[in-house]
Give the backbone structure.
Amino acid sequence: MSIVTILIDEARWWWRGKKWCHLVSDTSYDELHQFADRTGIPRLGFQGDHYDIPEEYRAELIAAGAQQVESRELVRRLRGAGLRLSPAERRLQTARMRR
């Protein structure tokens, strides 16, 4: 069995009256989608290189194996893996996923 490295940062971004955090893989998008599927995260939450996660689901995802990291570390590892997209690339990727 391979080691899954799914990362989740602190919930610090407010949107629609809720605090949100980010869920990423520092290995591949396939790994990220597999984790999301296993934990019931809808694909609608995928934003091109990460999933947006409401704060109330964070503890459940950590219990399922997501590793807690600070936001800076999450972005550093996403970039290091070559998986970080620019805002324009994220919009394009998100539009493709929703077709």
About this structure: The chain has one domain: 6-94. The chain has a mean pLDDT of 88. The longest helix spans residues 29-39.
